Amino acid sequence: MTDLQWETLSNQAVAAAGVVYFLALLAYAVQWAALRDVPVRRQAQVAVGAGGAADEVGAPSPDAIDDLSSERPEMFGRLGLLLTGIAALAHLVALVGRGAAADPNRVPWGNMYEFTLSGTFVVVALFLATTGRWRLSWLGPIVVGFTLCVMLADVLWLYEPVAPLTEALESYWLVIHVVAAVIATGAFTLGGITSALYLLKARSTKQTGYLARLPELAALDRISYRMHAFGFPVWTFGVLISGPIWAHQAWSSYWNWDPKEVWAFITWVVYAAYLHARATAGWRGRNAAILALVGVATLWFNFIGINFFSTSSQHSYANGAEAERSVVLRVAPAPVETP
Predict the structure, then answer these.
(1) Cα(312)–Cα(140) distance, integer angstroms
(2) Which stretches make up the Cytochrome c assembly protein domain (predicted)?
């Protein structure tokens, strides 16, 4: 296949993934609409021990399971999960095609469009990987809706044609650094979504509807903590270890006070405070959820906001063609004056 054919395949796969994600969202909507007026009569306490009942950390109550096992909701719930998996496969094809379309072939992280495409894929992949073990099917409509909206914005406002990497990005540290950042971003995003649902459920007094059928508050709190506990060391490696090493290789300096670097460190500090507060001060519930949302806000501001409010960032993968030209100018040797 030619480079143009690979790029066309990637674009078609993005469109196909969007359509299937939308169908999955409809299936989830039908599932939860069928359960909207069925009250949840009681909630079971789920004890999570080391290697014990951890598989059921996100499980709904027995009554909720009985209701969910009715024919119509169960069918549409499984259909939604199946469609989510099919959409994720199309999403992966889009990423592979994007990298194969470049000459020479490269990883699909050359600009913000590609990074966003990768980040949303990781969010869905983490959801699919954990939904069986932790019974997170109730996260399906939120995850799919979030992914669909971000992909739509990505295609409409961030799309760029395939182009070779700049000299500063031609390094194996690009793979190491960005893989860590993307995985951590997916985990933090899922943790932030769970924290937001915790706060909404804590304020809700309804006995029916989506919020009433979420797991107990304690289970939501544990799920959020586990997502953040997984993402934090990955983010630490990506931001404080591989990032500075790559910066030194590309720009001869470990720290350049680049806006992306500064906000990535701010994000690290917020999540470090979140985990430290839970471990030492025993923060649980509402306070921990609020701090987690502050963290995800700094994460996504760094990811999107800096690209629109800053013109000095050296991170070409985030700022697109204009920033790529800026990086080329900065890494190019100074002209030699001749007498």
Answers:
(1) 38
(2) 110-309
pTM exceeding the 0.70 threshold for the entire prediction? yes
CA 86 to chain centre: 18
pLDDT of residue 326: 41
199-to-46, 202, 210, 288, 312 alpha-carbon distances in Å: 19, 5, 14, 10, 37
Q: Which residue has the higher pLDDT, 37 or 236?
A: 236
Range of the domain at 155: 3-331
The answer to whether residue 237 is domain-embedded is: yes
Q: Which two tokens stand for residue 189?
A: 């995003």
> CB-based contacts of 186: which residues, under 8 Å, 6+ apart?
119, 122, 123, 125, 126, 231
Question: Do 114 and 91 form a contact (C-beta atoms < 8 A)?
Answer: no
CA distances from 311 to 149, 195, 316, 318 (A): 26, 33, 11, 11
Per the prediction, the chain carries an average pLDDT of: 83
Q: Is residue 339 part of a domain?
A: no
**pLDDT band at residue 77 using 50, 70 and 90 as cut-offs:** very high
CB count in 10 Å sphere of residue 86: 16
Whether residue 104 is preceded by a cis peptide bond, meaning omega within 30 degrees of 0, is yes
Using alpha carbons only, what angle is made at residue 262 by residues 256 and 267, rounded to the nearest 5 degrees? 150
337 assigned to some structural domain: no
Q: Give the number of domains in the chain.
A: 1
312, 261 contact by CB (below 8 A):
no
**DSSP label at 281?**
I
d(CA 295, CA 273): 10
Whether residue 336 lies inside any domain: the answer is no
* Centroid of chain to Cα 205: 30
